[in-house]
Amino acid sequence: MGQENKSDDKTEMTGGQALINSLYEEGVRVIFGLPGVQMYHAVIPVLDYPDMKFITTRHEQATTYMADGYSRASGDIGVSMVVPGPGLQNASAGITNAYSASAQVLVIAGQINRDKISKDVGMLHEINDQIDIIKPITKWQSRVLDADKIQDAVKECFYHLRTGRPRPVEIEIPPETLSDLAEVGSYIPEELPIPSIDGSSIEEAAGLLVSSVSPVIWAGGGVNLSDASRELISLAEYLQIPVLTTAEGKGSISDKHYLSLGTPQGRSTGESKDELRDFFNKCDVILAVGTRFNTANPSDSQKVIQIDIDQEEIGRNNDNTVGIVGDAKRGLEQLLFAVRSMTEARASRKEELEKIVFSRNNNPKTRVEPQASFVEALREGIPEDGIVVTDMTIMAYYARAHFPTYHPRSYFTSSYTGNLGSGYPTALGVKVAKPDKPVISVSGDGGFLFNSQELSTAVQFGINVVAVVFNDGAYGNVKRDMKNLFDNKSLGVELVNPDFMKLADAYGVVGMRADTPDGLKQCLQEAISMEKPVLIEVPIGEMPSPF
Fold first, then answer.
1. How far apart are CA 55 and CA 407, in angstroms?
2. Closest by alpha carbon to 389, among 405, 374, 377?
3. Are 245 and 252 in contact (CB under 8 A)?
4. Which of 176, 243, 324, 341 could form a disulfide with 307 if both were Cys (CB 3.0 to 4.6 A apart)?
């Protein structure tokens, strides 16, 4: 791994060796990548670390989707490595997904030769101003030109990854920088400061909650990302505040808990058939935690308390806001402490809230078939601690609001960017992070075929994800919308699909077909017990709107 230079306690390494050593010392044990000529000197040093994995994908897009899934499931850093130019551009879909989901993803990209950068000479994979391509979807970016600067660049990456709002960062490194020798010292990760929270905002928020007649908590993905489930539940129980979650916030409170009302259905201004919207509209104080709060649509008469680590998100979608800038875990912890000093614990609202949930779950206006039956089959076929990753598909749209979730970090979506095709590769990254948990991806036929080649990755590396593909032979949601809008006309939505069972066989995964909800339940139970990559096709017809 380099030759010791005992005269000055430094070690001579190539830039690539310094890069991998730095990542290793930061705790990285998995890299999702696709090797290419500019990156050889970054890939080969991985061999010096037997407990570090390099998982090769079949498309650069999957490297960042997998890194995203790994990060969100583990709470740690997901690392992607790609070649420059088209490699980074291919990976940008997954970077966008990670950006919207606030995932800690480090993207390591190659560059062309140092002396040719930005000269437009026609080098392999050359794109002028490459770094500008990903500036809008990364928190921080840097180009490293000298081998002895790589350690500092990695430290800067991890500083941005582990402080403030978690979002992707990127470094790009030319091939000579990776192959050059440099004398570097030992890599020592930096201890990061714990930011403080303004006490006056905590006191003001606590006073509002204590004096509120009908408060509600709106829990977003930030609760799961900061591991703040315990703090959320403690505050909710103390004041008997019911909890609504976003799709990303699902699992932050178990849907078996009587204070969990679930996830509201779709976007609404209060006219929705979903009873949860009516309940929300009657609340006087809303505690929004770790969420942009862009789908809640509070009225001017409702007071909002917003806890978010990103100051720019405070009040972004609602002017009438008391802001608490800080991590959800510490913000909720301090808020509970302040509340306890102001009032006694409130009497249980269990009976009242259970009636609301029962009414909503049994309301024929809320239940949409056949989605409801299939989502129930998904829930019954998967263990309570199983993890579900949903793509952009009709079934998943319904599942966001109606799939019961019992644990943090056990339900994942593509967040607000809505990346079609993200589900399966993201699920592979989740499974790498959580190899002992059943991981299920839910896709439509159109979305699944964006990245179906990653079945090969699953087989090669033993990543035992169960892929459920609802097959209607179309971009079904788009088809229905077009027909409703344009007098039963549609265009560009019909698909010619492969035989999914033959596709499964070709890749060496187990293929199953389920024609009914009960069949899906049975297939899921069998597939999970196999501990192999499995593809379950569910043929369906045209479906009604899930919203």
1. 28
2. 405
3. yes
4. 324
**Domains 3-184 and 371-539 alike in fold:** yes
CATH class of the region 3-184 = alpha beta
Helix (H, G, I), strand (E, B) or coil at 30: strand
Q: Is 518 helix (H, G, I), strand (E, B) or coil?
A: helix
Structure tokens at 335: 């808020």
Whether 168 and 135 have beta carbons less than 8 Å apart is answered as no
Per-residue model confidence (pLDDT) at position 4: 44
pLDDT higher than 60, residue 319:
yes
3-state secondary structure of 79: strand
The pLDDT score that the predictor gives to residue 84 is: 96
CATH code linked to domain 371-539: 3.40.50.970
Check whether the bond before 517 is cis (ω within 30° of 0).
no
Tokens of 482: 């077009």
Cα separation, 424 vs 142, in Å, equals: 30
- Please report, for residues 12, 32, 41, 49, 169, the alpha-carbon distance to residue 187 in angstroms, rounded to integers and kept in the order given: 13, 22, 19, 15, 20
376, burial (CB in 10 Å: exposed 0-12, middle 13-18, buried 19+)? middle
User: What's the chain's length in residues?
Assistant: 547
Cα 210 versus chain centre, distance: 34
- Cα 431 to Cα 25, 168, 218, 278, 463, distances in angstroms: 23, 20, 28, 38, 6
Q: CA separation (Å) from 473 to 424, 468, 538? A: 18, 15, 11
The alpha carbons of the chain give a radius of gyration, in whole angstroms, of 24
Q: How wide is the angle at C-alpha 404 spanned by C-alphas 464 and 446, nearest 5°?
A: 55
Q: Model's pTM, two decimal places?
A: 0.94
Domain ranges of the chain: 3-184, 199-361, 371-539
The single-letter DSSP state of residue 126 is -
CATH superfamily, with its number, for domain 199-361: TPP-binding domain (3.40.50.1220)
Q: Taking 70 as the threshold, does the pLDDT of residue 8 lie above it?
A: no
